[in-house]
Amino acid sequence: MPEAPAGVTIREETLEDHEAVARIVTDAFGQPVEARLVEALRTEAGPYLSLVAECDGSIVGHAFFSAVEVEGAPDAPPLGALAPLAVVPALQGGGIGAALVRAGLARCPEHGWRAVFLLGDPGYYARFGFGLAAPRGLRYLSEAFDAGFQVLELEPGALDGVHGLVQYPPAFASL
Ligand SMILES: CC(C)(COP(=O)(O)OP(=O)(O)OC[C@H]1O[C@@H](n2cnc3c(N)ncnc32)[C@H](O)[C@@H]1OP(=O)(O)O)[C@@H](O)C(=O)NCCC(=O)NCCS
């Protein structure tokens, strides 16, 4: 896996981590909505990847990747999406978020995902290679999200000829 900040280990979550994950996701977002989303996704998402960052025996960060589809594009390759991403407030800005993103992207091919979508600040995600999806004809729900909807091809050309609305698991409708 890519390097994490000193003392921080990135690993796949276990059942024992669920409570700590809910706590840090709630703290990071300042509300319980995203933590509930994670709980729903664990049961309803298809293949998923749920990573935690651990420091001194405590969970300090979390990233969830789930499978998504493109409406009207049955020939699209398997695709993933990152959401949510959270780091405990006291440790934000120390590289834990970046380590979670990089570790997750490195493991996406295990699920066959050939590109990864996310909704977020392009100022943060450009460093990982993400770019706006709208110019490629890929959209999340409506054009209102175009400014933050981004994609990274893990394999050049993976999205050639793939256009349409990207469909996330139904739990995202609760956001
Ligand atoms: C977003 C988040 C996961 C980033 O993790 P992190 O460990 O704090 O970030 P890193 O240390 O890897 O990266 C720090 C850099 O990201 C920038 N950054 C952090 N959060 C950002 C945000 N929400 N938007 C834009 N830039 C952000 C910092 O300014 C810093 O920039 P620099 O490297 O140019 O100085 C974390 O801040 C967090 O949990 N925020 C609250 C929840 C949230 O907004 N999640 C993302 C939803 S898309």
Note down, in words, how this protein is organized.
- The chain is α+β, with helices and mostly antiparallel strands.
- The chain has a single domain, classed as Aminopeptidase (3-Layer(aba) Sandwich), CATH 3.40.630.30.
- Helices cover 23% and strands 30% of the residues.
- The protein has four helices and nine strands.
- The protein has helices at 18-29, 33-44, 96-107, 122-125, and strands at 8-12, 48-55, 58-70, 79-87, 115-119, 131-132, 138-139, 149-153, 164-167.
- Strands 1, 2, 3, 4, 5, 6, 7, 8 and 9 form a nine-stranded mixed sheet that branches.
- Strand 2 (48-55) and strand 3 form a beta hairpin.
- Helix 1 crosses helix 2 (33-44).
- The chain is globular, with a radius of gyration of 15 Å.
- It starts with 7 loop residues before the first strand and ends in an 8-residue tail after the last strand.
- Coenzyme A binds next to helix 1, strand 4, helix 3 and helix 4.
